[in-house]
Amino acid sequence: MNLRLRPAIDAPVCLMFSRRQIxxxxxxxxxxxxxxxIGSPEQAMAYRGRLCLVIDxxxxxxxxxxxxxxxxxxxxxxxARWPYWFFFLSQADDSIKIVESCLCDTIEIVPGVASIDxxxxxxxxxxxxxxxxxxxxxxxxPTEALDEMSEGVIALIRNAxxxxxxxxxxx
Length: 171
Hints:
By secondary structure, the protein is mainly alpha-helical. It has helices at about 5-10, 20-25, 30-35, 40-45, 70-80, 85-90, 95-105, 120-140, 145-160, and strands at about 15, 50-55, 105-110, 115.
């Protein structure tokens, strides 16, 4: 097992957002929890790579989460106030993909294959990696931990990307 993913697999922390919370745009509870994560180096390290995002209440909706305006607005509002996703989100599930696809213009090409606006994705990645660096500096987190999380995010994005899909069915 990849040791970097071990905390997310062995002891995940599921952070569930309800439909009501999302539709109401209620950020109070999530932001309180997120702020507690960055209260001390010990707290940050305890939750490093363990958060799994769960969006509940849209299970019967045939759209992908990034296609649901309320979900996009909710994630965008959270991100505007708390950009430290890359240190805390699990790399063993789709949490990072959910956040990034909601922050960028994203369309579903075929079921299970999405296309994200690359210019917007570059801006999001730049912002989130800068936030990761700021978090590391402000809490004096171990460089190895920051590097490990960065490398994991980069690998995740590389593994999820497809340069181009050829064929009549995908144009």
